[in-house]
Design goal:
By secondary structure, the protein is α+β, with helices and mostly antiparallel strands. It is built from 9 helices and 8 strands. The strands form 3 sheets. Strands 1-3-2 form a 3-stranded antiparallel sheet. This is Transcriptional regulator, AbiEi antitoxin, Type IV TA system. It holds the Pfam family AbiEi_4. Residues 9-44 form the AbiEi antitoxin N-terminal domain.
Length: 195
């Protein structure tokens, strides 16, 4: 039997197999309380520090090229009090979105040419980062998808962003121009600033 010591705190069944652990060993270790199963095929060592964002971590391990977006990103950046029903991720258009039942996941297809715009990382667990869009890109994405996600949510996130210390409205407008929603975002920014 292989050893858990060679594996990172969060790992997949595939990486465990490469380290010499059979899937039966993983489920035995889970049943004994040495491992936690975050998602199908994603495990975390029980003695590892608790993750801040366990669902984001699980989805990121299963879909490492995806980017946390929309309401999920807004929650991380404290732009909303809404708790998303699903982890929302973006994948480049033309790429098949992952099928993840748990945690519930919703995939958006974003243009490949602007996919990396505003890309950053957040620490989901100590020493383990996930890809996420920055606050400015998140606000613009919520405005772009306001017909689908709700205009009140988009406007509330924009207002919350603009009223915080260190807000960069010029960056929001630059992203809005790149993502072809400049007019709508500019009008909303002007309205918030005029309040």
């Amino acid at each position: 039997m292989g050893s858990l010591e060679t594996l990172p705190n969060t790992f997949t069944t595939s990486s465990a197999n490469k380290a010499g652990l059979h899937f039966r060993d993983l489920y035995r270790l889970r049943d004994e309380g040495d491992l936690l199963e975050l998602s199908r095929g994603v495990f975390r060592k029980a003695e590892a520090p608790a993750p801040t964002w366990p669902d984001l971590l699980a989805v990121s391990v299963r879909a490492p090229l995806a980017v946390v977006c929309c309401v999920s990103a807004a929650e991380v950046h404290d732009l909303t009090d809404e708790i998303p029903r699903e982890v929302q991720i973006a994948v480049p258009r033309g790429q098949r979105p992952p099928r993840i039942e748990y945690p519930p996941t919703e995939a958006f297809r974003f243009s490949a040419t602007t996919f990396d715009l505003g890309l950053t990382e957040v620490e989901a667990a100590p020493g383990e980062n996930v890809r996420i869009y920055n606050p400015e890109r998140t606000v613009v994405d919520l405005m772009r998808l306001r017909g689908r996600l709700g205009e009140p949510l988009a406007l509330s996130a924009l207002r919350r962003y603009l009223l915080r210390r260190g807000a960069r409205p010029w960056q929001v407008l630059a992203f809005a121009r790149e993502l072809s929603v400049f007019a709508a975002v500019r009008a909303a920014v002007d309205a918030v600033i005029a309040e």
